[in-house]
Amino acid sequence: MIQKLFILTVLIMLCCSGVINAQKTYSVTVDEVKNGTIKVDPAIPADGKVAEGTVLTITAKPDKNYAIDAVYYSVKGMWGDMYHESMATPYEVVIDQDKKLGASFIEKDKVDHLVVTQNIVYAKPGVKELKYDVFAPEGAKNLPCIVIIHGGGWVSNSEDIMRGMARELTKDGKYVVFSIDYRWAGNRDGDEVGNTMADLIGDVFGAIAHIMEHAAEYGGDPTRIAVTGDSAGGHLSAVAGTMPNKIGDGGFGKTEGVFEFMPSYIPANKTVDQVRTEMMAAIKAAAPSYGVFSSARLNHYSEDSKADDSWKEAIAPLSNIPNAEERAIPHYLTRGTKDGLIGDEDVTVYMDALVEAGQRVQYVQVGGAGHAFFDWKPDERTKATFKKYGIYYVNEMEAFFNSVFYPTN
Question: Given CB 3.0 to 4.6 Å as the disulfide criterion, which of 70, 86, 107, 284 pairs with 91?
Answer without folding.
Answer: 86
